Amino acid sequence: MAITRRGLMLVLSSPSGAGKTTISRRLLDEERTLFMSVSATTRARRPGEVDGRDYFFVDPTEFNLMVNRGELLEHAKVFGNYYGTPRGPVEEALAAGRDVLFDIDWQGTQQLQDSAPRDLVSVFILPPSTRELERRLRARAQDSDEVVAARMAKAADEISHYPEYQYIILNDDIERSVAAVRSILAAERLKRERQVGLPDFVKGLREGSGDD
Amino acid sequence: MAITRRGLMLVLSSPSGAGKTTISRRLLDEERTLFMSVSATTRARRPGEVDGRDYFFVDPTEFNLMVNRGELLEHAKVFGNYYGTPRGPVEEALAAGRDVLFDIDWQGTQQLQDSAPRDLVSVFILPPSTRELERRLRARAQDSDEVVAARMAKAADEISHYPEYQYIILNDDIERSVAAVRSILAAERLKRERQVGLPDFVKGLREGSGDD
């Protein structure tokens, strides 16, 4: 016995080095109704990438048309290429009770907040300390101090946007952080407005038809 | 490492027979920062009851003064006696990061919603079916069909108030329902506004002081 529910849009944002990628992978493994959003992009397809799985590859004219038709929930230009989230597949997933995971920054999150405020669940992941963040950024590659300093400055800028998010997780333990996001998913699925089958269920309950 | 947080007020409501009492007991056992709210009442103390633990026992004049001074978060008259929730102990608990559990009906919940909307987390528990609800109400005692019918009517009236709650749990399995409320608690504790220590923590993070 389950009450029909509408899916939700889960946004995870964080400065790089805060552990977001690991948490996302774990969530996609463990949550069977959660799927990664597939973006449209104007950048060239790389070897091994599959159209419709990794990205929807479109040319700049087509991308521009999608923007003008209001078909993108959010979009941005990154290093000269355009990226955006097509509305159709997300809307389909939500209507079928599936949840969609977004790996986007604070600017994308603000756009989702404007275009789909009721479906959005936004989570910001903080590193436990500056020292730990620096350690993780350094561990990624043998980068110069200058590169690391630039990344730290970018991280500080991203962190300044935490007040725009609904939930904040301090990632000092990956297991605890995964459990925390899973609690947020479990709770948000129990929100009255997402349980779209409730009126019918309660009607049955009050009329004594019940279901057992 | 933990960020200071403000406690929350957890309201569980349901028609009698939906399993609320069992769920409440389990939560109080398993959640070490959760405490039952102690009500003030004008009804006489019964053998074994301890003032300040089971209730704050007050006379009608004192109760009336508490109402007039705005010292009660909610109050109601039940079978000729007055009951109410003193604001002071709840406010103290919340400020210390402790959570307070309330076992009140939809009318009390509406009053809490008015007096403390930001601290309130409201959960309505539904029985899985009319047949199951009737079975549970009958199991309680050897009551006449009339008494059971009156209880069923009261349950139906209470259920009609589910749209006033934030979260809805269908209690068809006690373990799952306890886990569901615990997820709600875990998630609500991660809400940005409840993590009152965040601005200081992030300030430290951005200034590079971190804590490790």
TrEMBL record, chains A, B:
Principal subcellular localization: cytoplasm
Residue stretches making up the Guanylate kinase-like domain: 7-186
Annotated positions binding ATP: 14-21
Broadest EC class assigned to this enzyme: transferase
Gene Ontology cellular-component terms listed: cytosol
Membrane-crossing segments per the record: none
Entry's EC annotation: 2.7.4.8
Signal as UniProt keyword: no
Matching InterPro entries: GK/Ca_channel_bsu, Guanylate_kin-like_dom, Guanylate_kinase, Guanylate_kinase_CS, P-loop_NTPase
Keywords noted in UniProt: ATP-binding, Cytoplasm, Kinase, Nucleotide-binding, Transferase
Function: Essential for recycling GMP and indirectly, cGMP.
NCBIfam families: guanyl_kin
HAMAP family per the UniProt record, alphabetical: Guanylate_kinase (MF_00328)
The name this protein goes by in its record: Guanylate kinase
The organism of origin for this protein: Thalassobaculum fulvum
